[in-house]
Amino acid sequence: MTESIQISPIGYVHSARKTPEDDFWNAVPTEIELDASRFSPDSLAGLTDFSHIEVIFYMNHVESEAIQMGARHPRNRKDWPLVGIFAQRGKNRPNRLGTTVCRILSVEGLRIRVEGLDAIQGTPVLDIKPWVDEFAPQGPTRQPEWMTELMKNYWK
Amino acid sequence: MTESIQISPIGYVHSARKTPEDDFWNAVPTEIELDASRFSPDSLAGLTDFSHIEVIFYMNHVESEAIQMGARHPRNRKDWPLVGIFAQRGKNRPNRLGTTVCRILSVEGLRIRVEGLDAIQGTPVLDIKPWVDEFAPQGPTRQPEWMTELMKNYWK
User: Fold this and answer.
1) What residues in B contact A94, CB-CB < 8 Å?
2) What is the maximum span of chain A, computed from C-alpha positions, in angstroms?
3) Is residue A15 a contact partner of residue A30, using CB atoms and an 8 Å limit?
4) Residue A28 at interface with chain B, using a CB cutoff of 8 Å
5) What is the pTM of this model?
6) CA count, 13 A, side-chain hemisphere, B12
7) Under DSSP, is residue A76 helix (H, G, I), strand (E, B) or coil?
8) Which of B1, B4, B5, B93 to mutate to test the interface with A (most CBs of A within 10 A)?
C-alpha cells in the first residue's frame, strides 16, 4: 500500500500564460502570491537579499491519464531517445511536481514578482526557497545533446 | 478552506545518517530506491547521460509543532538576522519539502547511488529530475553573508 502525503499550497501563481506551452517562458509576466489566510509578509522577510528563488509547484492541469511512469520520447520527438520519466523534466510525471529557479524582480507584501517561472495561471505553489550558490551542482555537469536542443527556446 | 493535494512517494532514501544533522553531508553514503510496486528500471532509462539529479523529498521527521510560518533566526543564531521561512532553507517549513541537486555515482535497476543528498534514512522521495544547465539561475546571483557562513561546512 503506497503511503499518501498531504500537502497544502502556500500560494498561487499569477501568470499571463493561461495554458501550458513548451517554450518562451522568460517573456511571460509572472507573480507568486502567498495565501493571506496563513501567511503574513514576515514569511518573506529578508528575501530581497537574494537574487533568485527556487519554486516548487504543483502542475494541477496535468490529467491523471497523461502521467507517464516508464520511458517516453521527450516532447514525443521520435528522433530523440526513449528516456525514463525521471531522466527528463516533462510535466506528465508522477506527483506533477515542478521546480524552477527564477529571478526576483520585487517583493511587495505577500507578492513576489519573478522572471523565469515556467508555471501557468493558477498553479499551486508548494514551497519557496532562496537560491544559494552552494546548492548548485558540485563538480562538472554533463547532459545529453537532445536536452540541450530541447532547451534552445525555453527561456527566450 | 485550504486546498489539499495528495502526493505519493516514488521511492525512499537509504542513508548512513539516521537523524537530522546540520552539516557534513557529502561524506554520507546515500542511495535512492524507487518503489518496485510502481516503477521499473525503464523509469530511469538514460539517466546516466546526466551527471546530476535534482531530488524533491519530504522531510517526514519534522513535527507539526516545529513548523515555522513567519520569521526566525536561521539555526537559532541570534547574531544572524530574523528572516522569513521562505528566505531560508531550514527544514521546519510548511509542507516539509526539500530539494537538492546531487551527483549520480551509479544507477543499477531501481537504485541510484548519489553524493550530496541532504536527506536521512527513510526519507520519502517525491520526484527526481535530471539537472539541466539551462535550469541554473539566469543572470548573476546574490545572497547574504549569513547564508554563505551557514553553508561553510554543509557539504564537507
Assistant:
1) 8, 10, 38, 127
2) 50
3) yes
4) no
5) 0.97
6) 11
7) helix
8) B5
Q: Contact B71/A45, CB-based, under 8 Å?
A: yes
Whether the CB of A33 is below 8 Å from some CB of chain B: the reply is no
Instruction: Tell the residue number behind the cell numbers 499551486, with chain if given.
Output: A124
The torsion region of residue B114 among left (phi > 0), alpha (psi -120 to 50) and beta comes to beta
CA distance linking residue A117 with residue A110, whole number of Å: 17
* ipTM value for the complex: 0.96
**Torsion angles phi and psi, residue B49, rounded to 5:** -75, -10
pLDDT (tens digit, 0 to 9) for every residue of chain A, 156 residues total?
A: 568 999 999 999 999 999 998 998 998 889 999 999 999 999 999 999 999 999 999 999 999 999 999 999 999 999 999 999 999 999 999 999 999 999 999 999 999 999 999 999 999 999 999 999 999 999 999 999 999 999 999 999
For each of the domains in chain B, give its residue range(s) and CATH number, in order of start: 11-133+142-150 (2.40.30.70)
Of B86, B115, B154, the CB nearest to A128: B86
Which residue do the cell numbers 544533522 mark?
Answer: B21
Mutation test of the interface with chain B: which of A24, A53, A86, A117, choosing the one with the most B Cβ atoms within 10 A? A86
Measuring CA to CA, how many Å separate B12 from each of A73, B32, B61, B127? 26, 6, 13, 10
**Nearest residue, CB atoms, A8 vs list B86, B95, B130:** B95
Tell me the three state secondary structure of residue B48.
helix
Chain B CB within 8 Å of residue A23 CB: no
